Amino acid sequence: MRTRTGLLAGQTAALGLMMAFLVVPASSLFLNAYGARVLPWAYLVVAVAGVITSTLVVRAGRRVSLAGLARGLVTAYLLTVAASWFVLVVWNAAWVTFVLVVLFPLAIPVGFVAVGSQAVRLFTVRELKAQFPRVVAGFPIGFAVGGLVAGLIGGSLGGVEQILLLGLVAGFAMLALVARTAREFPAELLARPETAPTGPVGAGLPQEGRRAVLRDPLVAAVLGYQVLSGSVTQLLDFLVWERAAATFPDPVALARFQGLYGAALNVTSILFVALAASWLLRRYGLRLGLAANPALVLVASLVMLGVGEGSGVLGLGFLAMACIAQVADITTTDGLTRGSVAATYQAVPPERRLPAQALAEGAGTPVAIGLVGALLLLIQWLGLDVLAVVWLVLVLSVLWLVLSIGTYRSYSGHLAEVLRHRAWDPQALRIEGGDAAVAVRHLLRSAEAEDRLTGLEALADSSSPELDRELARALGDPDPTVRLRALDLVGSAPLAGRPLVREALRELLGPSTDGVRAAAVLMGPDTQGDPRALRVWEAAMTGTDADLLDAAVNGAATAPRPAQLPLL
Predict the structure, then answer these.
(1) Rounded Cα–Cα distance for residues 305 and 309 (Å)
(2) φ, ψ of residue 192 in degrees (nearest 5)
(3) 161, 25 in Cβ contact below 8 A?
(4) What integer is the mean pLDDT of 485-495?
(5) pLDDT tens digits for 503-524?
(6) Selection from 139, 137, 165 nearest residue 150 by Cα
(7) In the 3-class helix/strand/coil scheme, how is 118-147 assigned residue by residue?
(8) Residue 114, CA distances (Å) to 171, 191, 327 in order
(9) What is the pLDDT confidence band of residue 202, given thresholds at 50, 70 and 90?
(10) Which of 427, 437, 504, 425 is nearest to 465 (CA)?
């Protein structure tokens, strides 16, 4: 697993380097040549190009292997940047920086499609939850390092445009990592996709399906939340770029600022995610996770208005406040907003969950970028200054905050409904003997915990007569993930009363996370359950050990009993 995680994290780190070495020279040269007034047109082009690009990527994914798709995307990026660098160096054609500025917001999600599709194929769902955050962490680290290097180098390579060459080096490094990953896992990454089925499933979500999904108040609220979040982020980005261009008219100085500021922003985001975000979400939940971002931006925009109306928008004071507002937005987006929005989909019925997520996230970003482009052009047409953009951020933040409260309330109601009508997806796996039984026994005796988990789940899905014996064995497995999965399987099915399983559960009882979860399973359907199990579970629920309390609540969720209700 470490090899898979390391290779994919290396790809995201290379992607972060590529983006840093792209945005620093592209933004500084573009702003020096055209100023911030042309940025709204770039945003409109990004919105249209984003829809076209995503369509082309989906179609390519149906025809080529995952490794082939990743290689093709990185190669297209390298060709575009190399051609732009050539045009800049040979003809000094500043117009090509418009292409690079448009390429930046397109390349990030497309790059994550290339990495994410590989991760989905290489990891199980359980592994994906544990390992993908480590994979994604490579991107801000790479971006921070790239921004720092670009800021320190400035124009010392002979011109700001030469920083693009460092991006090409990082791109070739990512291409090499993609090839290495494919060589390590050829069966998963080099196999061509199966022919897509015809009809609505192969064609995507039908028009009627999209309308039905949007009629769900929660999905509509999440889509609005995503659009407002993306719009505010884009407006803050515009403010920083516009004020930076006005403060640093020299492209070398502007490139130095963009690089060092980008590095500081990503380091701040990494520290917040690592040190505070998880604790805040566990302590205060989705209510804070959805509201914190708009609330912080609202406060920052009020301060920006105060600074702008007082000392004016010229100078470092207003630029510093715009940077603080963007840091607050990006940090809370990475640490709180993304995870909270993803969690809201758990309150959507399973059959509508994937279409809802695809619609909200797929449409949200291009709609937000296009909306910002149109609003900025309107502000320019009215002859308003940069403070009008801050007022726009303020208004959108208020709407965003109100919508976050509505989204949370809708989520709460939907979640209660989903839990009342929980649906289980049936699986038709059958293991009755022959090669299938031999294969499962081989998995169960494997030295790898992942293989033992797969074999255990195969037995559970098939209701094999061997399940009791193997569950009892798994409850004493040396790997905690195997023991935890065995406890979940025992708790979610009426298996605790079977002699072999019951004895194994009793051996686990005690003041440990496994022992507390075993106690929740052994408590029985009423107050006449196992007395020792009841004492162990109640001690965990009333104690001060957070890990044991977690285990007690999770065990009760897996094996709910009436006796648990008072303490829950």
Answers:
(1) 6
(2) -75, 145
(3) yes
(4) 76
(5) 888 888 888 888 888 888 877 6
(6) 165
(7) HHHHHCCHHHHHHHHHHHHCHHHHHHHHHH
(8) 13, 15, 27
(9) very low
(10) 437
Q: Are 171 and 72 in contact (CB under 8 A)?
A: no
Question: Any alpha helices (H) in 185-277, and if so which ranges?
Answer: 186-189, 200-203, 207-214, 217-247, 251-272
* Predicted pLDDT of residue 334: 84
Candidates 449, 457, 516, 446; CA nearest to 479 is 449
- Helices and strands in the chain, H and E counts: 25, 0
H or E stretch covering 526:
none
Angle formed by the axes of helices 2-34 and 66-91, to 10°?
A: 30
CA angle 207, 208, 214 (to 5 degrees): 90
Q: Which pTM does this prediction carry? A: 0.72
* pLDDT of res. 431: 44
CA distances (Å), origin 485, targets 253, 328, 471? 56, 39, 10
DSSP state of 197: P
Read off the pLDDT of residues 82-120 as tens digits, 9 standing for 90 and up: 999 999 999 999 999 999 999 999 898 888 888 888 887
* Alpha carbons 164 and 24: distance in angstroms, whole number: 9
Both tokens assigned to 114: 């290339």
Contact 86/94 with Cβ under 8 angstroms? no
